[in-house]
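Lab manual, section 2.4: Encoding a predicted structure.

Procedure: take the sequence of the chain (565 residues), apply the prediction step described in section 2.3, and record the output as structure tokens. A sample record is shown.
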Amino acid sequence: MSFEWAVALLRKSPELAMFLAVPIGYVLGNIRLGRFSLGTVTGALIAGLVIGQAGININRELRWSLFYLFLFANGYSAGPQFFQALKRDGAKPMVLSVVVAVVGITLAMLIGRLLGLDPGMTAGLFCGALTQSSAIGTATDAIMALPISPELQRLLASHVAVADALTYVFGAIGSILFISVFAPRILRIDMRAEAVLLEAQYGIKTIAEGVVSGYQRFAARAYLVRADADFAGRRVGEAERAHVGLRYFVERIRRGDQDIPVQQDTALLPGDVAVVHGRTEALVAAGPGFGTEMHEAGLLDFPVAILRVVVTNRALLGPTLQELVDARTLELRSVGLRTLTRGGHEIPFGAASRLNRGDIAELIGPRHAVERVAASVGHPLRPTSATNLSIVGFGILIGALIGLPYIQAGALKLTLGSSVGVLVGGLFFGWLRTVRPTQGEIPQSALDFMITFGLAAFVAGAGLQAGPEFLHAVQELGLAIFLAGVAVTLAPLAAALLVGRYVLRMNPLLLLGALAGAQTFTAALAAVQEKAGSKIPVLGYTVPYAVSNILLTTGGAVVLTLAAG
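Recorded output:
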């Protein structure tokens, strides 16, 4: 009786079924088999397919409202990296994204025709094999533009979700195995040796995962200036430049019982107590030049700030970090770079690294100095929980309007569709954020929620709609479409591997990271990093991840439209 009551409740309030599928999908998607897990989105789709056996008809407007949130947030997050990829330094990784998308679309179309799949199944084959469940939405949007009956539209839309579910599992496992196991063998490389060489090239030093280094990169020390010390009687600026290539700065000077202002021409006199802040290795080298180190808790107790800043200053783009320090075109005195985040992923960096527009640089140093440098670097990200809802609302509205116009080609309406339009709107506002960073602030936590929950809830709804067709489709096409998914997963990756190595001449380790990005599959990147014993493959991951998120999402609509033509 209780089971029948629950089914009746879900049929009466189908939105509850969607919210039930999401947490079940979260639990299911986070079950790990070794290092593999389905993920929340695929788990929600499977949960929706199972619950959908009860014949639950979910409201389309509810599903699409959540999908629009996902599309806008996804485009907003990818915007800076997507437009960076259109420039010279992102061209090579972007090519890999184009190769994966073009080969995937072409192969899905050929196999679909060979097996006699309907447009919905063909589009779902593309979505699942390339692990891009967001393409379910754009494909479904394209179905709604077809000149067919509403009943056939619903059937084709359900087939998209069914085919995605049948091909996604190998799409995930196959991507991990190909990128982290077979590709290195094809390239004949020792991944750990390549990681050591690449880290040396970038001036990066890493430690084992799960280990916290006892080494503190930045520190402050107090020195009693002796009469016989090298810097006694010299100016602060001269003392700070005495060791070429080392960065350390005199922050405070106590003379007698008074603190005196520190300027570049301030003299260091015997008996002064100087507080010096900088990288630890610099203090070790330069410290004896000041005098005798001493413990002065009061002097060493000064405010040190850590502040995240969006990089927007064009003068910082192009030169290496070491060149920026040496050039002294910007006043970077007293401030160090603690972490660097690109496209939502923290990346390793060294003296030879370069900044991109939209990077998030985490600065550390005395508070007054950090505030000064932050204003020169870009826009500080102050801790906030507020989201600019006007940007979200107008971005979705304007994007959807962009997708409405169409061109009539015979019986077909050729249109971007509202889903692709919203994605474009997100891209634009994400890029605009790097140009005018004071406008349209959306905290990363809010973006993560819109991306994760928006897509999970949408595909859960798609699973609910497709539930009644699922078992029939598995019985009729299960093995054939699974094998088709194997081909559509591996062929684009193999083609991109060959292009990246022999045409673009990419570094093999960055190429493996770029393949994971082109497949938009972070688990494959993690597998590469584990085998390489280094985080450095992420340097190749960020640009193709951003570009492929756009290309593969819109690819769902492309495949559906071509298959229906």
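Check your result against the sample. Residues 208-214 have pLDDT under 50 and may be disordered.
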